[in-house]
Amino acid sequence: MLYETLFLIALCRSWLIEIPVLLICVQVFWKTGRPSPARVIGTGLIATALTLPYLWFVFPPYLDMRYYPLYGELIVIGIEAALYWGFLGMRPRLAVMVSVLANAASFAVGWFLA
Q1: Does the reported pTM lie above 0.90?
Q2: CA distance 1 to 79
Q3: For FRET with 68, which of 10, 36, 53, 85 sits at 20 to 30 Å CA-CA?
Q4: How far is CA 79 from the centre of its chain?
Q5: What phi, psi does 5 have (nearest 5°)?
Q6: How many separate domains does the chain show?
Q7: What is the domain extent for residue 62?
Q8: For residue 35, which phi and psi values (nearest 5 degrees)?
Q9: How far is CA 29 from the centre of its chain?
Q10: Letter string b/e over residues 44-83, b meaning 16 or more CB atoms within 10 A of that residue's CB
Q11: pLDDT for residue 22
Q12: Which DSSP state fits 32?
């Protein structure tokens, strides 16, 4: 299978895992004035669509492959947390926690299925 096809499958799989995690986290941890589900879903779509291509196509030549999963995921977590903070108005600490949970779930399912 083409690498690009594998990327598109991973992108869709990431959306299917990370967006529900994001929605659940917003419901559980956000007590008042939470953003609409449409805004949360849109932010999740954008966050993953902006970061996964870098993880698959841009970072590999520049990161030490022994630590690539760690470095790559840390960079993605930071960027997605910043997007959650900016687009959803999450507190920075909550944005990082939600990003860690969403990406850990996605990484674990991807690793299990590989």
Answers
A1: yes
A2: 29
A3: 85
A4: 9
A5: -65, -45
A6: 1
A7: 3-113
A8: -70, 160
A9: 18
A10: beebbeebbeebbeebeeebeeeeeeeebbeebbebbbeb
A11: 97
A12: S
